[in-house]
What we know:
Strand order of the largest sheet: 2-1-8
Shape: globular
CATH superfamily: D-tyrosyl-tRNA(Tyr) deacylase
CATH topology: D-tyrosyl-trna(Tyr) Deacylase, Chain: A
Mean pLDDT: 92
Radius of gyration: 16 Å
Low-confidence stretches: none
CATH architecture: 3-Layer(bba) Sandwich
Largest sheet: 3 strands, antiparallel
Amino acid sequence: MTRASVVNADTGDVLGAINGGLVVLVCADPDDTADDCAFFARKIAAMRLFEDDAGKMNRSVLDVGGKVLAVSQFTLAADWRRGNRPGFSRAADPETAERLYRLFCDNLRDQGVEVATGRFRTAMQAELVNDGPVTIWMDSKKPD
């Protein structure tokens, strides 16, 4: 990713921005734990998603000196199968979700990654210039 930012939709204030790295959309499920936050932080910091000199995805965000823009995104838990209006009851309650989001960001920082964030419970506008694109869905509950 070349650059990304999130701004407050009401005021236009920039909440978080990075040049180079990863955008991570974070959605907490009701049964997510602190261990899940630590697991995802370790994986994201070490995952080889950036090209090496041979053009192979062989470098991590740490290897390339990239940053992470972490944005809370409860809508990833949308249940869209019935009707035409998605439901969001599969997302963690706001207090739990915010705690887990902040813990995830802290765990990423503990891995040595510089982290910019949006603002929890704020309507945001996101901008992303993706030079991949590479998009990976990560779920700790999927079977092996």
